[in-house]
Task: structure prediction
Amino acid sequence: MEDAATSWEARSAPPSDVKEANAITGKEKSKSGKPSYRAVTLERYWSRAELPQQETDALLLEHLDLQRRRLRAIGAPDFDIHLHLKSFWARFEEVLPPRGSFYLAWSENGALLGTAALRTVAPGIGEMKHLYLRPEARGLGLGQALVEARVAD
Result:
């Protein structure tokens, strides 16, 4: 955990409340020089229309590019990250309530830090579709907070 106190706030609100949660401010650096987010909002989305589409696409493409590079490094075949993203959006309803959960993590200053998605396979059984944090948000416990928020849904 970083030097500054960190708090995670998970919101699971109806669509009308989603935009309000994205208006957040402030960020500081810890003694180590790594960004320290004092408060992060974990926002659960209820429809694709609520999402900041360009920011979400950019974040998911970062995630897919990282996965592609890691897989290629161990000899896996290459794949088209844009085609993979298109496929994800085609089946996006599978990670929306009541069938799943889709979260974006926002810093105090409104920067998009990460994402997580869960799809319900059967009652009490879920499949983690993805979990991704931008490098500056890693090591702060945010990944665990995203997993816990999804499981709690």
